[in-house]
């Protein structure tokens, strides 16, 4: 079968998704289709129902020395690798995951993107006490929606160590019409190279200089205009200035590009690639040399498939793509957006003989059509029912590099007024990025809809961009909304979204 006819078949299969919703299980199995039941309508329970399948796992957060494929770095990780161990469940399963904290610091785990019970969300001071050094905490929750997720601490800038790992929730109705599945985790790496992420944050704050007196009056407006430097160049710059930190390495699945992870398959095989950006300060452009990618899911939720040359992944975003492989050795490249130092992320795809491309390979696809989330449309099965909002909240993303201070709605987290919502409401969030940097905005415990209807939990907002996000308030609790640049978040770019009677 040729690549083209496979692709045609795939698109045809996805077109049948709506028919499959009526319970037709004999539809041609031609690609991932959304869960037959769609997203679970009610709040996922905090305790297992009788007969519910239980997935149990223990994660040990601990100091470790990692070999990144040449450089060795002292860091913190879940077990002996970064990314840490895959957690895998089927939608509707109950997860019982014990965190053993062997770090010399408090920590927690946040299950990024999962519409889980609030008590399991992992936000210290909001949903739980931090897990102290030597302590343990058991996270218990139902994973209601299939998709590609990940998990990481919600304490300080620990995410920028090796503390991250994929979480895959399989669709029980997934036809699985692909030959292989690869989980591809992107990261920017600094820990153990003479600096820790805590050092990086301290330096950002020190270099930003003192805050002007007069409280938060300086926040907002065009803050960050001074920081147009390294994002420059002549290429189209949809994200303007995209990062604050200079990293020595960019990793794919924990490897530097001189010793890349290698995925093996046979020519003609169709592969589902699950891309996760676990970086703290880096937007990547991802491409597979010699191939186009058919994007099927965004942040776990199905989309109308689109074929692209490359795609942008902001911090915390995930995309799934299908690709039919050619014969040879191909570079899977994660090019850091707007960063000129530290090279790039690289993995290899090998289906035949041939010379492996070098660490600086630049596939032509990087200059082709690059997908923006706003180009995608949701699969019909996951569209929010149309309804006018019951409530509107405004979110103004503000801040600057000098002083290094970020906030939402006029103040950093802790000083800003939390947003509130009532259970059952359709909430519109009018988000305005009032800065000259791009921010990946992430909401806990829910998946919002972009104006196109696209369902996501993390969305990139370019400098001065506004976007109306809508969500159904169906998961009672106290939740975070924040920038997933972990340095911005830690410097204050977070706000609470609290359910109130
Ligand atoms: Cu992945 Cu609150 O974050
Ligand atoms: Cu930010």
Automatic annotation (TrEMBL):
Domain Plastocyanin-like: 69-173, 250-338, 389-498
Pfam name, any one: Cu-oxidase
Biased composition (Low complexity): 31-40
PROSITE patterns per UniProt: MULTICOPPER_OXIDASE1 (PS00079), MULTICOPPER_OXIDASE2 (PS00080), PROKAR_LIPOPROTEIN (PS51257), TAT (PS51318)
Claim: Repressor is one of the keywords in the record: no
Coiled-coil segments on the chain, per record: none
Domain of life assignment: Bacteria
Keywords, in A-Z order: Copper, Metal-binding, Oxidoreductase, Signal
Location of the region described as Disordered in the Swiss-Prot/TrEMBL record: 31-50
Record GO terms (molecular function): copper ion binding; oxidoreductase activity
This protein's record includes keyword Signal: yes
Signal sequence bounds: 1-29
PANTHER family: FI03373P-RELATED, MULTI-COPPER OXIDASE
Protein name: Multicopper oxidase family protein
Native species: Propioniciclava coleopterorum
